[in-house]
Design a protein that fits this description.
Structural class: alpha+beta
Number of helices: 2
Order of helices and strands: EHEHEEEEE
Strand content: 15-25%
Number of strands: 7
Shape: globular
Largest sheet: 3 strands, antiparallel
Length: 122
């Protein structure tokens, strides 16, 4: 039996840099859902700095829950179906990073390259 699916439309506004990061975040969700990959996803945002992001309609029903989470001071804040959780980067262990050239780095060393390029100039 297929799972019930819903569709919601949101308008997201931010600087070009934040919107690019948000699009990359959406790509993680989209492709992981289609490839059958399970993980916890994150997107950095300096909300008290120049990196503002607004969503319309605002998800006000979660405001009280999230206000408790945002005051903890964690590096990673995770939304779950049941609420929110927070952890520090030091708890994460090794550092993995993917550059725009589609190369995966682990602790600063190239680990794997995607089979196709993301941009012509890579």
């Amino acid at each position: 039996m297929p799972r019930e699916m819903i569709t919601k439309d949101f308008k997201v506004t931010g600087s070009p840099e934040v919107i690019l990061r948000f699009e990359r975040f959406l790509a993680m969700l989209h492709f992981s859902s289609h490839w059958g990959h399970s993980a916890t996803f994150a997107m950095g945002l300096d909300g008290d700095g120049p990196e503002r992001l607004t969503v319309s309609p605002a998800p006000d029903k979660f405001r009280d829950q999230y206000s408790l989470t945002s005051g903890i001071g964690g590096d990673i804040e995770i939304a779950t179906a049941q609420g929110y959780t927070v952890c520090k980067m030091a708890e994460m262990g090794s550092e993995w990073f993917v550059r725009a050239s589609a190369t995966l780095y682990k602790n600063g060393e190239a680990h794997k390259t995607a089979p196709h390029k993301l941009r012509d100039d890579d």
